[in-house]
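Section 5.1 Outputs to date
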Amino acid sequence: MDALGSGPDEQQTGGTAGSATELANSAVAAVAPTVPASRRIIVVSTVTALVVLLVAEFLYFTLAAPFFFTWDNFLNVLTAAAIIGIIAAPGTMLLIAGQFDLSVGSGVAFCGMVLAVVAQNHGLFLGVVAAIAAGAGLGVLNGFLVTVIEINALITTLGTLAVFRGLTEVLSHGEVVGITGFSTIGTARPFLNIPMPVIILVLIVAIFWFVLRNTTYGRWMYAIGSNPVAARLVGIRSKRIIFIAFLLSGLCVALGGLINASQLGSASPNTALGMELSVITAIVLGGTSLTGGRGTILGTVVGLLVISVLNNGMVLMNIDPFYQDIARGVLLILAVAFDRLSSRFEARSKRAAA
């Protein structure tokens, strides 16, 4: 970790910069002027608009699809959204800091394949350990390339997306690999008949919501995304913080791979194709800015539900599944357009205040 702790952005100003409390206070003070009330209003209005859209979806599909408004179907919606939501939680944190991770889909496939291949030869326990290590390795590699080599996160994760998809093909020889005795994490219903993936999703969302909202680390993420120069000047160790965020993303990718393999009872080299698009769409639709510094876990959850309810309703209405891809693409374009309009509104507000 020495390499991560070196460089100009790791230098602290002032003789008492060794105090963690003073460092946090300095960071918050430096960034506070760059987060005006207009930004908070934008985030709130985005979430409110999404909630209205979600309610409208519920009303429409309840009337149009007779089996939509049932408890079992609600659980189906949440189960289908679980893996994407688990990965979108750290993805939100990364985007708030101005970073991307587009390697998540191939990472899910790779971790699931590592589980299947190692479990066949060395047992299920070592397979799970190897899959978690593979996810952590993906996160470490992305973090290293972005923070130490200083390659743009978009280029880095596009590259690792291709690399890990290829490694998955190599491990499997292009074939589906079966897994036996590993159904609990993907299909068990231990509490109130709620599927295990949904319970895991709730726990992951709660953890990342708490971290972003109530910890110094979460405030640092907003600081880095809002004003990287100010964050560096007050002594925030930006590289190390971003590295940790990529590691957390890799671990959640591994968890997603385990759940997916458990649900299917196998691992396929074609698993999770295009999942990165669904993850980014949920995050951006939820109000997280592509330029960093703005976003919430709650917004991502609502954005995820909007997409999942739409997909579920279209399936129940027997609409061609290819239209789901069209719907996701349209939602992503609309979300990015709204983000750009929000940024312009914020810039005009700053100029008017000046």
